[in-house]
Amino acid sequence: MTIGIHVPILAIAVPLLGAFALPIFAKVHRNLRDLWAILVAAFTCAMVVALAVQVFTSGIQLYTLGAASPTATVVQGGFPIRIVLVVDGMSAFMGLITALVGLASLMYAFQFLKEEQGKTLAMTLFFLLWAGMLGMEYTGDMFNFVFLEVTSIAACALVGYRTWESRPPEAAFKAMAMYTVGGLLVLLAVGILYGEYGALNIAYLSSKISGTPLDKVALGLLLGGLLMKAGTVPAHMWAPDAYGEAPAQAAIVLVANTQASLYGLFRVLFTLYGGALSTPAVGWLVTALGTLTLLVAALMAVIQTDLGRLIAYGAVSQIGYMLLGVGVGLTVISSRPDFGLVAMKGGIFHMMNDAATVGLLFLAAGVVKRACGTKDLRALGGLGHDLKWTSGFFFLGALALAGIPPLNGFASKFLIYESSFRLSPILTAIAVLGSILLLAVFVRAFQGVFLGPRLRTVQPAPLGMLIAMGVLAAIILAFGLVPDFFVRHMVTPAAEALWRGRDLYLAAVLGG
Amino acid sequence: MSVVVRTIARIIVPMILAFGGYVIMHGHLTPGGGFQGGAVVASAVALIVVVFGAERLKRRKTLLSLLEDLGAIAFIALAFLGIGVTFFRNVLAGGGGLFGVPVPPGPNPGFLDTGGTLPLMNWAVGLKVIAGLGSVVVLFGLFGGKDDR
Amino acid sequence: MIGNFPFAVCMILIALGLWTLLTRRNLIKLAIGITLIESGVNLFLVTLGYVRGGVAPIYTYAPPGARMVLPTPQALTLTSIVIGLATTALMLAFAVVIYRHRGTLDAGKIRELKG
Known about the structure:
The complex is a heterotrimer of chains A (512), B (149) and C (115).
Chain A: H1 2-5, H2 7-28, H3 30-58, E1 61-64, E2 84-87, H4 89-112, H5 119-138, H6 145-160, H7 167-197, H8 202-208, H9 213-230, H10 238-245, H11 248-272, H12 281-302, H13 307-331, H14 338-372, H15 388-402, H16 408-423, H17 425-450, H18 463-481, H19 483-499, H20 502-510
Helix pairs in contact in A: 2-3, 2-5, 3-4, 4-5, 4-11, 4-14, 4-18, 4-19, 5-6, 5-11, 6-7, 6-11, 7-9, 7-10, 8-20, 9-11, 10-11, 10-13, 11-13, 11-14, 12-13, 12-17, 13-14, 13-16, 13-17, 14-15, 14-16, 14-18, 14-19, 15-17, 15-18, 16-17, 16-18
Chain B: H1 3-25, H2 34-52, H3 61-81, H4 117-142
Chain C: H1 5-23, H2 27-48, H3 71-102
Helix pairs in contact in C: 1-2, 2-3
């Protein structure tokens, strides 16, 4: 079983290799490039799934780059100097989300993109972004800011590479400025931590951090930088622009990218600072930011007139729900009551649901844009006559986003409501209000775009795009109908990895 | 540009190239390496763009992007060499073969046959940086021209 | 006391960069502001690795028992410089494209996306 131990690095290295080899294959022949892309994507997904199975059955997986054996993380004296990949339940869960979104995006892109619109470039950037996200999720090292910046650059290039239009470069410039400043804040924090403890390994740092003033400064910088990249409310300006202007298959990868930043935040809060930080103040801060984000974004969605921006604000508000769920868990982590774990499960389950739901909506909006050439709600109407499947998918996504039973959005939001009520009923009230607003907004958008008299005849969506949407719709339905199964086998290990898994994480990396 | 500038550029460019090559080649022995040497070489490209105009190098764009991809692929392939043990494992170092000679202590300039996969990786990175930075400079030089697509 | 001087310089650079980002409207100047922050962070990292009387961290050069400066911050800085190069190039390219579409670099006038 030689390939088994190399799975974590293969999941990162293969898409990276795929990205750089793609332009060369494209020069040989177009079909060769497509074949290569499919091969790389299939192999990466297989690796991610195999890794998740390994983690969920046999615990944390380690991989040390360049060492004499993949599990030799520490050199003499219990001091880790090499770069390690540490994959626990949470990382494996995030990897699954990334793989799913990437697969849907690639299937969609095959028919969405045309050759003259830089298909090779877009696919190269996509694989680069994919490798960067998986790298961020699997790394066990603060050096992972490299992957953070790789995702920033690839994501912004993907937003703005269509230079023949005027709006995408503008959105990309804005996003780039925010991403870069966020990344530099994170780098500054990494520098502070290195200066204090002389190491970059997360597990080693976590065992040393004691809560000095400098640690708190570093925590503040990390929080600021990662929240900036995740697009929460005080720094959310770039998000609607980038989501709204990116082509559909890039927008859904951006959703996964945002979640990768959130994963980085959770890793910092629960694993890196899990020992030193027993005050609930940080938990309250995260909870408050989450609540603010979901409310402000839902309110902003009400006044949008562009379908892309409307969905984008819906996506930002979903980030708020995740932060709310995990923030409730973080607030009460010192006493570890039952509802804390429930809240964590809700927040983490919602990440998967958000990727499927918002992804589906963005893809449907992409079909609308392709059919009509515009996403302006005032100019659209009656598309349901021609785009039957697309309108069905959009309706499903809208209901799931608003949290209507029996869809997946309800399953995760119910966990969040139930547990946040135990902390403070006001939080639950605001969260429910946000959902109601989103329901109203999306039903109105659905009615305006797909119902009503036929304004024009449009081409139906091609099969590849429908399959991509069908995959996400199937996931929405499956997670909504049997949530218990998925919660027990995937979400609970992920939530436990953050909730109680810090000691296991440290023991796995540092030994003993 | 005037004839003085052009003549001096003709003299200086080979020197810059040689120095860049030196920095890349000695990357595993002295401060320096792929990125630094690549940046030095790319500065020669910048000099050419300033003195002779970017039009001169326009036809080389495809070649540059091809070289950039090759550099990246070579780097990852070198990392894959170690996959029998671990990814990025330096399998050539200390083996006695090519680049496998152990490094003697003390200053040892010109002792290039050491370091295992490191010098090869330096060349891969150097190739990528030369081509990448070079094409960035050329493309910025072409911006604003008549046909800059 | 004088040992902390480099850190003060880093913080001043970062503050200047943030000030540029907040007060300037020209896209090129925004890119310059980001570069300033980046220089501050890079300087900070290099300063962290300094050891008084240390030699270059090359194993075969160093006399036995000599103190070396820390190599990890230098690796971090180098990575950061490479990334900064890519970021700056990308931002400037976007600025050029925006200028070509709008004929201006004033962020106040480029306001197609808002709300």
